[in-house]
Structure formats: structure tokens, C-alpha cells
Fold:
Amino acid sequence: MNGEVLAFWVLAVGLVGSALNVVLSKNLFHSVLWLAAALVGTAGIFIALDAEFLGAVQVLLYAGGVITVVVFAIVVTERLVGERLSQTSRRILGGAVVAVGVLAMVLNVIRRSGIDMPRPEMTADITKWMGISLLTQFLLPFELLGVLLLAGLLAATYFARPEE
Amino acid sequence: MTSDRARALLSQITGLTVADGGPAVTVHVPTEQLASVAAFVKETIGCAFFAFSTAIDHKADGLETVAYVENLDDNITVVLRAKLGAGNICCPSLVPVYRGANWMERETYDMFGVQFEGHPDLRRILLSDDWDGHPLLKSYAVDTPYPPYR
Amino acid sequence: MSEVREIDYTGSERLTMNMGPQHPSAHGVFRAILTLEGEKIVAVDAVIGYLHRCHEKLAETLAYVQYPSIASKTDYVAAMASELAYVMAAEKIGQFEVPKRAQYLRVAVNELQRVASHLLWLGTWCLDMGGALGGGTSVFLYCIREREQILDLFESLVGARLLYGFHQVGGVRYDIPTGWVEQCRTTMDLIEQRLGEYESMLHDNAFFEMRTRGIGVISSQLAQDVGVCGPLLRASGVKYDLRRNAPYSSYEDFEFAVPVETEGDCHARYRVRMVEFRESIRIVRQVLDGLPEGPISSRPGVKSLAQVKVPKGEAYARVEGPRGEVGCYLVADGTNKPYRMKWRGASFSNLAVLPHIIPGVTVADVVAIMGSVDPVFGEVDR
Amino acid sequence: MTGTSAMSPLLVALISGGVVLGALTGLLAYVTLLERKFAARMQSRVGPYRVGPHGLLQPIADGVKLLLKEHLVPDAADKGVFNLAPVIFFIPCMLIFASMPFAPGLGVADLNIGVLFFLAVSSMEIVGLFMAGWGSNNKYALISAMRAVNQIISYDLPFVMAALVPVMLAGSMKLSDIATAQQGLWFIAYPVIGQLAFIAFIVAGVAAENRTPFDILEAESELIAGFRVEYSGMKFAFIQLGEYAHVIGTSFLGAALFLGAWAGPGPSWLGPLWFTIKALLVFVLFTWVRWSFLRIKVDQILSISWKLLLPLTLLLLLATAVVIVIRSGAGV
Structure:
């Protein structure tokens, strides 16, 4: 077992563990913290796969930004002080069916794609390559995503505006 | 407006006694007229500035409240004095006329136990809420032990 | 003008926060129970009395020769002003004469006291707005450095640095030592020069302007209604200064300007006090130039408690202290002790305006407003 | 282990990591003394003077004091979160040095995405900060944490934009490449763009580090000490060290991005020294700002960020792109 495999397993166990804690923790604030851990774990997996750029973006946007927004949402929507925020699981059965379905689908995709081939060596600067392809080959989807996000932003502003 | 004119105006109101002499215009007001006289002093004489109000314990003669109000533009000081009479602790509040009377009357209530009628928030201000008695009354024994130090 | 609002603790998104009684910017022991919606304050309940020492009851048990030293403990930042108010009230009832030299000395120490007190105000105010770990501390330490010089002057005059017991009924207790006049002049020159330095740090400083302009506006009507006095009243557009409008202790002999600003916000109060600094220095210089010779007291040195007896009567004496009208209402019954004494503390009335102006501002503004009001809790609680 | 000829890369990484960490801890301790002495001089004081000659042992005394102090945990605190928060806060603050090359080849890991790594990791400290604010179960701490969320969202963006200007000029996110690119001309001397970007970097940096005039999180005159109000002893020290590490890290980043990193006269082994001196200069600049200004309010901080700094840095970025295109066009 070399270092890379070891790193993968450590990260994987940590990732799954914190992901489970996100849904199992009774305290909503703790859930958010576990979510942060899960997102950082994902970034770790990216870095282990030599995709440092993705890993760093993962941390910058998700672990930093999304957590911030989630925490902010808790703060402005729930009671501030006093009782602890809590979450309870309802409709466990339905949730289990959906989860099993998704798991089967993901497994199916993984099995079909034949992902167990040896990983090619990274030779070029992946970051540079990514930037170039985003602005040439994938320019249209990239711009479309931009427009979509802008629309989302405008909608959010519309809903968040103070009541007249 | 001058002090003399203020004196003349105030002496026209029935029930009031305007003391002679002194730079300040001192008026003895019956308690029930206090609020209306204060409003008159503020509106007509222009005494918009509320300096302070307090009380004096005349032992057997009872309490007397004193309020200093001033017209800053014309340098007129009007002193509103109201004898509550022996055994009486009720007095109309000046808060509807002067907002500054709020804390001053709370202090007077705290120290003398004067019940200001019409005061929006008559609580103790300097002493703690569970204090017994009103210390500036002459009848208050200074060395009264206070719980929990009793 | 906003009235004192009902305090509603029930709102689900409201937060009740205690500011004080032990809080870095409580300026002593002041407790404000703030009800917050986010950072905005919707209601405030001011709680005072933590420093209450029964001054008024105490005065009924102390003789006229004893109490002036205790009077200095009401407003311990401007001890000279409250002492003067007390002795002036006694002099007014007893028609005691005060020699010209004593009057001039009283003016000198009161103006020095005003400078010292305003220095402390500027320092602590900037400390409130700039933090103990920021630019505020710098201003604070500069101000304290200059205040020390004035305290040195007081020390060589009376031997004490904070509570003086300088005034007595009929005059003052100590004459100036040799070299004091020169020391005083040097100090005044130094402070006047340093004032320019403070202003270069604060004036036109964008951060300072942002924190003070339009914050805590007191209208002239509200100011008079509540009895706000001193620099706050003048910053609200009322040109009223007891030294000019009701001169005492020979203030009519001196030339000085009474600054007035109309905005009524924190910045206006700052500007008024900055002018007062310079005017006080000007008055001190005039006193030093024109100090007459003669006795410093119309009465002999204190030998016994019964020495000063004040005839039956009553008087209200007021002094323009650094914080405004410091008044002493004295009822005498002919013995050597007052029958009743009432302090009209400038800080008490100035602080009473807070519940009227705080609702609607943010937490950060509260400290700026508190600092600009410049309360001393010894005087509020007495 | 008799031969030292072939050390494994892991061992090299461990050793260099250890060296950097050790040097950093010392630097951090003494930077506090530098700040205290500098502030004291600004305020016509002497500063720490009693412990050791000229107070030189003061940081050690402080450290010992903090180690020995009692750890207080509020009764109503969320204990796990409360105890973990200083560590979660501290780790990203130290990690930012991982991608920092102190000289050519001297550093823990000179990543391709060095600048991005720095920004990503430093944005993580908000998690620890919010944990501290929430876990304390204290209203002051909670308000401080809420302010932190506001402020850090607002200032991360301008900070990234300002840092991107040198990245674009150098054409790489690798810090050593950026340093090499400045051998002719430091980016701070780059006409107009360089200076503006440096100013934006300093302003956003001060805000990201929560220092006066943007220290609304700590705001001891309003919120006592904000999110750290309940911490004592070593946990407090961790938060404090983390903050200083972040400031020093930002100073090193500033020196690397704008001041030519290790470039300087003398032999090349002096490089790390030059780099440190430049970083300390940036640190002193931060300190100077800190001890000269008053704190401003939350809403004002936000409006400065969103209405002024962000559009300006975006424009600056655009201008940089235009300049680069024109220059490369002219060059070809």
C-alpha cells in the first residue's frame, strides 16, 4: 500500500463519516460543521488526484463560501439564542428508497465507465489547460452557466428585497 | 419677556403666590395646579429648559417639591414650588410638560417616596428595586441596616 | 423626535443585550439594556445608580467646612467645578464676600479643569470609537500625556491630583506657589500646540467623519426639554453659557467666545469642545496676566467645624462645569450643616437624553453617542 | 539509516515543513513584540521593557503566562465546538505558509496554484471563527460571528481581485514564477496598475485580517472582544497566534506579489532574509494603519467593499488584461 492509496482511504473514510454525520447529527449547527468537513475532504480527494486547482476552488468556494452562506441562513432564520437548533428525521422509509435508488444509479455509472484503468501521468499544467479549454472548446456552456447564475442572483435579490 | 413681566403674568393666575425679590421668579403653586402652571410657564414665559426638580422634607409640615425651569434666551428662571401638605405624598407629574422631569422625578420618588401621578415609568432609579424606605426623608434613620446586611 | 419606546422582549428575532454595568465603553458603571434587531437598537432601558454614594444625605451630616472636599467626589474628573458650586451656594445664602484674587484663582483652576476634563473626554471618546487595539488608543494616550501636565499644576497648587478641596466658603484654601505662573504658561502653550496635532489626526479624517456626522442628533427643543446642558446644549444650537449668561466669580472680566453649532450630532459636540479648549486656555492666560494681589479668602483659616455658620435661607448656585451646568441647591437652617442639599449633576441630565436618541441607531453608534455625551458616573449617581 | 544520499521526498517535505514551522513560530512571537514596540513609539511610550533587555523576552513571558492560565469553559457553551474552534481557526492560518517559497527551492510545497491555495486556505478560517462565536453561547460572540460572516464574504472578493493583478502580470499562479517575473521590475513599480493594486491589496488585507479600522469583529468597545470573549489560556493564545500568522502570511504574500519576493542585493543565500524584511515592512504598514485610524461601522465597511473596492478592483483587473494584450500584441 503506497502513500497515495493510504491517503485515499483516510480521506474516503473521513469523507463518508462526516457526510453521515451531516444527516445524523441532531444539532443543525453541528451538521453544518460536518458538511464543511465533508467538503474539505472532497477537496483532499481532488488534491490526491493531482487536481490541485479543483481542490483549491472546492475549498475557496464551498468550504469557505457555502458554509458561510449556510451559517448565515441559520442565523437569520432561526432563533438566535436559547434553545439549540435541532433537526429530526421524518419519512425515513421514503428517504431510504431514494437513497438506494441513487446508490444503484451511481454504482451503475461507475461500473459502465470502466474507471479502474491506470491513471495517466499528468504532464502538462492542468490549470492552464483547463482555462484554455473553458474559453475555447467549452465557451458556450461556460457562458450559458454564467447567464444562469446571473439569473439566479437576480432572482435571489428579488426575493430577498425588503418588504414594501 | 423679562423677569418682571413673568412675575406679573404669574401673579394674575389665581391660587399662585409669587415671592418678591431675588433674580429667580419663585412661585408657590397649589399641587393640583402644578401641571397647568408648568405648561403656562413653558408656553407663555418660554421656559423651555428644565434644570432640575427635587423635594424638601419639612418634617412636620410635610414635603415640598421644587422645580427649576429656565428661559435661556431671556435669562429668566422660574422656580415652581408646591407644598404637598403633611402626610400627603401625591403630586402631579411634570413629565407630560418636560421630558427631563422623567429621571428627576424618579429620583425624587426614590429618595422621598413622592408618588408622581401621570409619570410613565415611576421606578427607583439610583437605589436598588428592593430597597426599603426613602433615605432623604428626615425620618429615615441613617444607620438602618439594609438587607442582606441586617 | 422619538419618544422613549416601549420595551418589547417578546419578538422572536430580537436579542436583548446588556451593555454594562461592566463594559469597556460604559465610562464607569452604566448599564444599558439594549433590545436589538440585528445590529439595530429598537429599545433601550438605561440603568444607573451603581455608583450611588448618598452624597445628598451625607451633606446633611457634614459641616460647611467639611463638605467641599467631599463635593469633589461627585464629578471626580472635574472636581473643581462641583466644589465651587457648593461653596458658591453657601456664600450666596450667607452673603459672604469673596476677594478678587480668590475669584480669579477660582476661574483659573476651573478653566484648567475644563481643559483636563475635555482632554479625558477626547481620549476616551476616541478610545470608544477606535478601540483599545487601534487608532483610538493613540489619541487617548496623547490626551492623557497632556492631562498629566495639568494634574502636575494642580499637584503643586494643592498637593492632590484628582480630588482637591481647593475651594472653601469665602475664598480658596491655597495661594499659588512661586514659579506656578510660568509653569502654567508653558503648559498652556504646549497644550495649545498639541491641540492642533489632535485636530490634524481627527479633522477631515474620513473614518472619524463617518462615525460622528449625523449620529445621535439632539434637537435644540429636545435638549432644552430634557435639561441637556453645557457643550451638548451649545452643539444643539442654543447659545447658552453660564459664564456669559449668568457670570459668577468675575467671569465678566474675561474675554472669551461661546461656540455654538446647530447640527446637534456627535461631530458638532466635538467641534464645540475643541473651541472650548482654546477659549479656556485664553481665559487662563488672561487670569495669569491680570491676577490681582490681596487675600485669598475673606474668612480665616479653618480651625473648627462650627466656624462657618450659614444663616437660614436657600440658594441655587450653578457653575459652568466641563460637562455643563453643575448646580448646587442648598437649604440652610442657620446651623453649621445644611438642612438639605441637592446636586444638579450635568451628567445626570445629559445622560437622561440617551433613551430619546438611542433607539434606531446601531450598537457601534451607541458607544460614539455615549462618548460624545461624556458622562461621569460619579456625578450621575452621586 | 547510515547513508544520507537518498532522502525520500516525504522526509524532505517533513524536514522543510518542520523548519518553516519552527522559524514561523519564532517569527510570530517576535512580530507581536515588533508591533507592541512600534505602537508604543507611535504613542510616545516605551512599550515592553521589563522582561529581558529592552523587553526582548516579553513574547516568551507572554507564552508562558498563557500556557499556565486556567482554561475556562462557559457552562452553557457547546463544549465540543468551543474547544475545537481555536484549532480549526489556527490550522488554516498556519497552512497558508505551505505554498510560500522563502527562496528559490526553499519552501514546503511550491504549488502551481500557490496564490489560489493561499486564498482558499485563508478563507477557511471563517469556519473556526464562527465555531468560536457560536460555541461560546455568548451574545457578544454571536454578534461578532455574524459580523465576521458579513465582512469576510465582502472582503474576500476584492482581496482575490487585487491579488490576481500580479498573477496576470506574471502569467502564473505559482509564487516562485511570480517572484521570478519581478526580477526586472517589482510589480509595485509597475506604472499605475501596480500601485493601485497594492493599495487595494492593503485595504482588503486589513479587512480580511480584522484589524483596525476594520476590526468590527473584535470591537472591544462594543462587543468586548467579540468571538474570543470567552477564551482564556492556550485557547486564546491559539486564536491570537492564528491571527498573527494570518497577518504575517498576508504580509509575505504582499511581499511576494508586489515587492519582488527574495530579490535583493548580495548573494542569493540572503534571499530569505530580504523576503522576511520586505514582509515585515508590509506588516509594519498594516500596523501603522491599525494604530492611526478609528474603527468604522459594519454597514460602512460593507458599503466600502461592495460599492467602492469591488468595482474598482474589477476595473483594475480589466485594465491589467488590456495592458497585457496590448503589450503582447506590440511585442509580436
Observations:
- Chain D has a mean pLDDT of 81.
- The two ends of chain D are 55 Å apart (CA to CA).
- Chains D and B do not touch (no CB pair under 8 Å).
- Chain D is about 65% helix and 0% strand.
